[in-house]
Amino acid sequence: MTTSTRGAHRTPAVLVLEDGRIFRGRAYGAVGATFGEAVFSTGMTGYQETLTDPSYHRQVVVMTAPHIGNTGVNDEDMESKKIWVSGYVVRDPARVPSNWRSTRSLDEELAAQGVVGISGIDTRALTRHLRERGAMRVGIFSGNALPDEGTMLAEVRQAPEMSGADLSAEVATTEAYVVPAIGEKKFTVAAIDLGIKGMTPHRMAERGIEVHVLPATATVEDVYAAGPDGVFFSNGPGDPSTADHPVSVMQGVLERGTPLFGICFGNQILGRALGFGTFKLKYGHRGINQPVQDRTTGKVEVTAHNHGFAVDAPLDQVSDTPYGRAEVSHVCLNDNVVEGLQLLDRPAFSVQYHPEAAAGPHDAAYLFDRFVSLMEGQRA
Q1: Rounded to an integer, what distance in angstroms lies between the CA atom of residue 284 and that of residue 100?
Q2: 264 belongs to the catalytic site
Q3: Distance between CA atoms of 286 and 308, rounded to whole angstroms?
């Protein structure tokens, strides 16, 4: 793959969906071929945080906002050590970035990290197609990787599907590490890394929490070796139906009654630990403008999402589980998808969205305070 973005702007590129729909444009970022699940994100800002979110591993992200790259790229807004998306699709990339924090252009960064993209296509038509047909496998081809249409379609259809994909261990840390509390240390939290974003332990550190980040393969014994006041399960990629090990670890935490908080994939893990099923959404929720109601307060929040799977739990009744009563605490106002769970007899709750969202919105930041309150109550 070449990292020349100047030449890439003139290089033809083709996007091929698994149902045979084809879009033609120009290479953006690296030149070559890539495959993944085609999904769309509705955020108008925060593209750097999206690209570096491990939850997007093996996904080709279509940006619905037409102008991308205007603020360039910097070294401070990374949510992890690298770009995780498999491919990137934009309509009108910025010709010249303009921001005082920018150190390089987005297309240069994509090329440097070998991320194949495409620009100059009708992303509105592509988004409508995915809304009608659902998220599906896709390939982007450019340069010497541009074969005939039949060959491209065959290669797309041979790519692995997201259903049944077990991906957490591919993006999680392999070694435990500690994020120290900012200021006075008040609590210790063991955080299971299933694809954690860098802002998550930072949000906890701001509240006086020392965060011990553990690999996805951590055992219950590893969790309690940290002497935690609370346990956190992070976001991450893949199909929650494959996450038997994290579910088992969470059940061990629930049995001990330790305060527990889960985000995104962690919400799905809690759902499974309580005995609920999960299912794949038609095209998922991705973006920073999703309306969610906190049923415990009645408040409506604008929230950041990135999930293609959801928990199958009853919306309007309290459920009996092996760990006491549970209820749906948050719901998406667009489609009534479960966006949060809480136990009524033990200190455990989760949300499907991202209260730590660095790019905003910050309506849901109070959930970290709720976690602190659970730990304070347990200590008392």
Answers
A1: 34
A2: yes
A3: 8
- At which residue do the structure tokens 């699709």 appear? 89
Q: How many CB atoms lie within 10 A of CB 69?
A: 25
Residue type, 140: I
- Identify which of 102, 95, 44, 58 has the alpha carbon closest to the alpha carbon of residue 77: 102
Q: What is the pLDDT of residues 110-121, one digit of tens each?
A: 999 999 999 999
CB hemisphere CA count around 192 (13 angstroms)? 36
The confidence band for 4, taking pLDDT boundaries of 50, 70 and 90, is very low
Work out the number of other CB atoms within 10 angstroms of the CB of residue 324: 16
pTM of the model: 0.93
Decide if 362 is catalytic.
Answer: no
**How many Cβ atoms from other residues are within 10 Å of residue 300's Cβ?**
12
Amino acid sitting at position 303 = T
Does residue 170 carry a catalytic annotation? no
Question: 108, 264, 330, 332: which one is catalytic?
Answer: 264
Query: Coil, helix or strand for 153?
Result: helix
* The pLDDT of residue 359: 65
- Which amino acid appears at position 48 of this protein? Q
